[in-house]
Automatic annotation (TrEMBL):
One Pfam family matching this protein: EamA
The EamA domain, residue ranges: 19-149, 163-298
Protein name per UniProt: EamA family transporter
UniProt cross-references to InterPro entries, sorted A to Z: AA-Vitamin_Transporters, EamA_dom, EmrE-like
Lipid biosynthesis is among the record's keywords: no
Topology versus the membrane: Multi-pass membrane protein
TM region(s), chain numbering: 21-40, 46-66, 78-97, 109-126, 133-150, 162-184, 196-214, 226-249, 256-275, 281-299
Organism expressing this protein natively: SAR324 cluster bacterium
Keyword Glycoprotein: no
Amino acid sequence: MQFERNLMERKDHIDLFGGSVLLIFAMLMGLNQVVIKIVNDGIQPVFQAGLRSLFAFFVVWGWALWRGKKISVTDGTFRAGILTGCLFSIEFIFLYLALDMTTVARNSIFWYSMPLWMAIGAHFLIAGERLNGQRILGLIISIAGLVWAFSDRGLDGESGNWVGDLMSILGSICWAGIGLSVRVSKLRETSIEMQLLYNLAVSAIILLPFSLLFGDWIRDLQTVHIYMLTFQILVVVAGGFLVWFWVLTIYPASDMASFGFLTPAFGVIFSWLFLDEAISLTIIGALVLISIGIVLINYKPKNPKPV
């Protein structure tokens, strides 16, 4: 169909459709932070992440078969697929443990600093996405926001654990590494489903045994935890991540990342709305600085049309 062909064409900027998809994705990812933290009360974090990858693998695999997508590891993507799968595993070990130690609001600030690391990596790895003076200024402003948030420990015990904050940052760097690996390897040429299957298969193999190092698998398991884990499997991973990988293959990495500043905002809002977390002036100030920085990093003035 012509519409489907248009969707799959490489774009040099974010159009209305892409922007709408990224906005919905940002809301979903912001909500996902709340869901993970709640499920951590019932299921050990790393085991939860492993279960999510295991069951989501079969959902995505079934979807790929139904859609007639090519599923192969002999097309030159195997090594890159294993690499991104390992990064995916490390990323979610950091995320799930971080949400066991720090607040969703703080985690949202640090975790969604991913666009900063992606812009830095793209400067060295992707032609046409180099940093200039404006982008460097944006990096400085955003990093200042991260330092401000990280250094504020608070006096009320609500500021979270610095180890959790650090894990959030390290996880976001791994996330950026996945995006960049896709852009510079043969994974760019394979199907979105195959990219995700690599990540899910490798992470399930790594995370489930690794979870044995973190204590009992089951905490205070309730029905709501099962429902929320199912939401993660079907909506966040099988739906949301498929969209993420599709967007990554269509739109410029740094332009796409510019929508990332919306996700921490949604994360902070949802943490207050659903978990009644206190939102300090530090969180608001850091969020503003990071958002301004990301906009500066990714803003590209339109070239004037020739007369």
